[in-house]
Amino acid sequence: EPEVTQTPSHQVTQMGQEVILRCVPISNHLYFYWYRQILGQKVEFLVSFYNNEISEKSEIFDDQFSVERPDGSNFTLKIRSTKLEDSAMYFCASSGHYDNQPQHFGDGTRLSIL
Amino acid sequence: KQEVTQIPAALSVPEGENLVLNCSFTDSAIYNLQWFRQDPGKGLTSLLLIQSSQREQTSGRLNASLDKSSGRSTLYIAASQPGDSATYLCAAKRREYGNKLVFGAGTILRVKS
Fold first, then answer.
1. Best of A29, A46, A97, A105 to disrupt the B interface by mutation (most B CBs within 10 Å)?
2. Cα–Cα distance for residue pair A38/A51, rounded to 1 Å
3. Backbone angle region of A107, left / alpha / beta, with phi > 0 → left and psi within -120 to 50 → alpha
4. B38-86, pLDDT tens digit by residue?
5. Over 70: is that where the pLDDT of B97 sits?
6. Whole-angstrom distance, CA of residue B80 vs CA of residue A81
């Protein structure tokens, strides 16, 4: 069964450094998302991406965050200058042609900011 | 603003028992509701998706129902097994352009053998 893949599984970075989290969505999907889950808290929406542009973003997704689909397969989340509070599990998700289809999630990248 | 609540926060049952997990949402204008399973340190596995026009969906031993008017969904697990032990999350989506999901905090299920 097709799946969403994320790399790396764990990223450790010094505060202030830039990180790029990578995702390969399911190949025929058109909607892409990033969510995060701080330890012990709910999964929170960050951003959705459709037709090569951001369709919605949360208040968490400020100027230090950006997303990109650099080619036909990858979808990336960049955090420009990381803060301690960015430590979380980051999940990529994708869904199919229509907005009434389920979102499928990857296994996540655990980001630890030191 | 949509708020999603799940009760109970944790549940421990003996193997073979039928059980019900509850999810409530404050905004009844949902487009659909999705149930997930999360194993420790892992991603979210989609279990069932119920559209707003549907009352229930079934997959194997799982049955999810939706009552928009009361703002509730339930996940019924029949004949529970130790392998069902995980955190179960529900997430609601409004019909809006971004398609974001709003998640509950989850129910931690432990099925004892």
1. A105
2. 29
3. alpha
4. 998 889 999 999 999 999 999 999 999 999 999 999 999 999 999 999 9
5. no
6. 46
Dist. CA B3–CA B24, nearest whole Å: 8
Choose among B31, B51, B100: nearest Cβ to A45.
B100
Nearest to B34 among A44, A99, A103 (CB): A103
- B98 pLDDT above the threshold of 90: no
What was the pLDDT predicted at B95? Answer: 72
B49 and chain A in contact, CB less than 8 A: yes
- Which of helix, strand or coil describes residue B82? helix
Closest CB from B31, B45, B46 relative to A100: B31
Residues A34 and A67 sit within 8 Å (Cβ to Cβ):
yes
Which residues of chain A have a pLDDT value below 50? none
Taking an 8 Å cut-off on Cβ atoms, the answer to whether A102 and B51 are in contact is no
